[in-house]
Please model this.
Amino acid sequence: MRRSFEMYPLTKSIFFGCFHCSGISRNLPKAYYCTNLRTLGKPNVNVENMRGFAKVQSLSQHYYRSTRKGTLSSRRPVSTSPGNTQSSIERKHQKSPSKNKSFVPRKMLILPKVTRFSFEKGRFPDLSESELRRKLAERGSDYEHLVERHSVHLKNLQNLVEKLEETGASVKVCTNMKDFTEEAVDWAELVISAGGDGTFLSASRKVFGDKPIIGVNTDFVGSEGFLCLPRKYSGNITKALKLMESGSYRWRKRARIRVTVKGGDTSHPIDLYDEDLTFSDHRHLHNSERQKSLERRLNGEDSEEHIIPIRALNEVFVGESLSSRMSYYEISIDNGPLEKQKSSGITICTGTGSTSWSFNINKLSYQSVEEVLKIANRQTGSNYSTNQESVKTVADSFNGRLLFDPRVLQMVYSVRDPVVYGIFQVRKPRGFARKITIRSRCRDACLTVDAGTSYLFNDGALATLEMFDEDAIKTIEMVE
Model:
C-alpha cells in the first residue's frame, strides 16, 4: 500500500469523532480515527493493528471537503491550486509548486462533443427540418433550444480551433469517434476534448502513457464540465496556453481501473455511444453475442486471460443487462474469500468517479438523516437536534467522506440494493479496495466501462479489477 500520506511522521495520536470538525487531525497527519466508542476504551491497544481504527489519509479519502460551514455546495472536486479552499493538512504541508518546463504543444488533436441536436439528426438522417421539429415536439423536446445550444458549441469550437492555430500549431479536429483513432492520438502532443465530462471520458479511452489531455467546456449551460478546465480558461484558451508556455502549471494524474477478464469474451464489445444512435436494445445485442460466446467457450477460446483495452476513469458496472433482473455473482475484496451476493449490480469507482454515480448511490438525503435522528431520540432517550442546520451538517459530513483524491490508487465498490437472506450476505455494501475479483453467476450480464463500452459477462466469467500507476491519465492544472 502506498504511504504517500505519511510524508510528515509527527507524533501518533488517537481521537474519536468526525475529523472534518476536529482540530487534532489538522496538526497530526499520522493520527488515528476511532470508529466507535468500544474500541476507544480498550486498554493497551496496538493501534497499528487495530481494526477499530482507520488511519487518516490526508491526501486520499479526504481530498475533497465541504465548505467552511460544513455544506457540500457542489460535486466538483476541490482544486489544490493556490487561492482555492483546501484541507488544512494539504495547505500546511503542500510544497510551493516548482516551475515546470515550458510546454508548447505543436500538434493538437480535438475531439468535439456530440450535441443533442447532432445526436437527433444522426438518429433520423432522412427527416427534413420541419419533420424533425415535429417529431421532437411529440416527445416534449424543444427544437429551438437544441439548435441554440448546438450553435453555441459550434461557435466556441471554432473559436478554440482559431486560437490554437494562431500559435502556429497543427490542429486536427475529429468529426466523430471513428476518426479518433490510436494513430491520431499518437500523432498529437496534446489531446483536447471539446464539450463536457462525457466528451472527456470518451477522449480518455484512447489516451495512455504520458500523453497529456485537457478538457475545454464549450457550453457552460448545457454541460457541467467538472473534468474540464475552469471557465476562465475554457473561455480563454489563449490564457491557458500562455501559462503552459511560461511553466505556470502542474501535471495532475487521475488513476484509472484496469480490468482483466478470464473465461469471458472481450473481443466483441458493444460501443454504447454508437448503439445509442440506432436506439437499439443493448440487451438483445448481448443476447446475440452470448450464443457466440458459448460456442467460443466450447472450443476453448475463452479460457485465457484478456486485459480489456480501455481503462475506467469513472467507474465499472457489473450486473444483469435487464435492470429488473437480480444480479448474482461472487466477489472477493483484496484477495479475501469469495462471497455470494445478489443485488441490482455493483459499481467500482475511482477517485474521479467518486463525485458521480457512486456518490449518488451512497449519499444521505436530509430527509433520511432527520428521520434517523428522530428515531435515535425516541429509542435511546437522546436529544439530538433535528433542526435544519444540524441535519444539514450531519448529512454533508457523511456525504463529504464519500469523495476521495483522483490520484490515489484505490477503488470504492458499492453494492446496489443488496439482497440479504440465507446464504446471501452482504456484510459490507460499500468500501475501499486495492483489488476486486468478481465471478459472474448471471444469465445475461454486462461489464460496462464508463457507461460507454459494454462487455458480455455471464456465468463463470472472472474479472479482476486493479489500479496501476502506468494506467493513470495525465492532465494539466493551471497555476497563477
Q: What stands out?
A: Residues 118 and 150 are 8 Å apart (CA to CA). DSSP finds 15 helices and 22 strands in the chain.
